[in-house]
Design brief:
The chain is α/β, with parallel strands linked by helices. A hairpin with a 6-residue loop joins strand 5 and strand 6. Helix 1 crosses helix 2 and helix 1 packs parallel to helix 8.
């Protein structure tokens, strides 16, 4: 998607738009969101005397959207460890919760859990002992047995141990030995293994949040795809496309939708995807002038719209809702 902040004049409104998009991604179980530069973004005038404060909502809207979406996807108990204080996040606490399956409370058990690695005192050669009710640190030789382990803050009262060294302050996905909660798991000394972020979905069918990546142009959405084989079903959106409702009826203009593993839906900014094609040097060099040539389907999300424009945050809800049956009927679960 391209950013949609050209008409948002305040930081609160910009954050609200990001929150609306994040809610749609969560509700419809989106695995990846790609933010591309359509070449239309121009730095806006700073508001409310913010000046050069590090806030990127005006100077770099694409980064601002990526920053907010990444923050909101992260489980609440990890945010303070992974996201330093930043002006972009000033109003993020007022946005609606995404409440996704990996946003677990401390009293909730799941065989998979997100965490962040923390400093291990044993690795640093520090022995924490009690002396007259006060903690006292003693320097000792580093424990060689700790070199192949890490401690992970998973939202419990005690850290979780994993048999792998991962540098501190790294987000990890944990898998515990059993799907059944152990006794007093909030305070017990637990062990787990670090697994791929896709493991909860592939092994147990959980929706486990979305990944965020940013690219410099529309063509890079495709060329920098992280999935083996790329996207095998693609939709471009435009008011000049065929009605979205027509894709369920196979014809010469709208062939039957095949089964797919990775579906891509591309939303443009207020000016549409046409301007993104014209601003993309790679596509221009290839002689591509019509954006519909890039997609399997070129669809209109809201035929007969009453407003001249449909904003990106509105189009995301319309598109994901309209394609929900396609995902459920033709998507291949991995």
């Amino acid at each position: 998607m391209s950013h949609s902040y050209s008409g948002a004049q305040s930081q609160d409104l910009k954050a609200t738009l990001a929150g609306q998009i994040a809610r749609a991604l969560a509700v419809f179980c989106v695995d990846e969101v790609v933010i591309f530069d359509d070449g239309q973004g121009k730095p806006q005038t700073q508001q409310n005397g913010q000046g050069d404060s590090g806030y990127s909502g005006y100077s770099d809207p694409n980064y601002f959207l990526m920053h907010l979406l990444s923050y909101l996807e992260t489980p609440p108990h990890l945010r303070m460890h992974l996201f330093p204080l930043h002006p972009d996040l000033r109003t993020a606490g007022t946005l609606p919760s995404l409440d996704m399956p990996h946003h677990l409370r401390a009293h909730e058990w799941c065989q998979y859990r997100e965490g962040v690695t923390i400093e291990d005192p044993q690795r640093n050669g520090i022995d924490v002992t009690e002396e007259k009710g006060k903690k006292k640190k003693k320097r000792k030789s580093a424990d060689s047995s700790a070199t192949a382990t890490s401690l992970v803050n998973a939202g419990f009262k005690t850290p979780v141990s994993i048999p792998t060294f991962i540098p501190p302050h790294t987000r990890v996905t944990l898998k515990f030995p059993s799907s059944n909660p152990p006794p007093d798991f909030q305070t017990a000394d637990l062990t787990a293994e670090a697994v791929a972020p896709s493991a909860p979905r592939e092994e147990a069918g959980y929706y486990w949040g979305y990944a965020v990546r940013a690219v410099s142009s529309l063509s890079n959405v495709f060329t920098e795809c992280t999935y083996d084989g790329g996207y095998d079903l693609t939709f471009g959106t435009s008011e000049r496309g065929v009605p979205l409702s027509s894709i369920s009826k196979a014809s010469t203009e709208t062939p039957a939708i095949p089964e797919f593993k990775h579906m891509l839906v591309v939303f443009g900014g207020v000016a549409g995807l046409e301007v993104a094609v014209k601003a993309d040097p790679e596509l221009v060099g290839m002689g591509v002038t019509q954006p519909e040539k890039l997609f399997d389907h070129w669809v209109n999300l809201c035929p007969g719209q009453g407003s001249r424009t449909i904003r990106t945050e509105e189009a995301v809800w319309l598109g994901l809702m309209g394609l929900r049956d396609v995902v459920l009927d033709r998507g291949i679960k991995s």
